[in-house]
Amino acid sequence: MIAGVAAGLADRFGMQRGMMRLIFLLSLILPGPQILIYIVLWVIIPEDD
After folding, report:
1. How do residues 6-41 score in pLDDT, each as one tens digit?
2. CB-based contacts of 4, cutoff 8 Å, min separation 6
3. 13, 18, 19, 22 — which has fewest CB within 10 A?
4. Are 3 and 42 in contact (CB under 8 A)?
5. Domain boundaries in the chain?
6. Is this prediction's pTM over 0.90?
7. Of 43, 45, 25, which is closest to residue 34 (Cα–Cα)?
């Protein structure tokens, strides 16, 4: 909802947007570079017109 990254990924992989957002939120529990990946995707995923 912030940058549309989860929605863009959900559309790309044929998933529901809410499910992709939930998966991302749950992944934040695990250690790793999730926030950095989100920011990179925010920059490289084109905006939906």
Report:
1. 888 899 899 999 999 999 889 889 898 988 988 898
2. 45, 47, 48
3. 13
4. yes
5. 5-44
6. no
7. 25
Exposure string for 22-38, b = 16+ CB within 10 A, e = fewer:
eebeeeeeeeeeeeeeb
Contact (CB, 8 A) for 5 and 45: yes
- Residue 5: CB atoms within 10 A of its CB come to 21
Which residue carries 């998966």 as its tokens?
23
Q: How far apart are CA 19 and CA 25, in angstroms?
A: 10
Phi, psi for 35 (deg, rounded to 5): -65, -40
Q: How far is 25 from 12, CA to CA, in rounded Å? A: 19
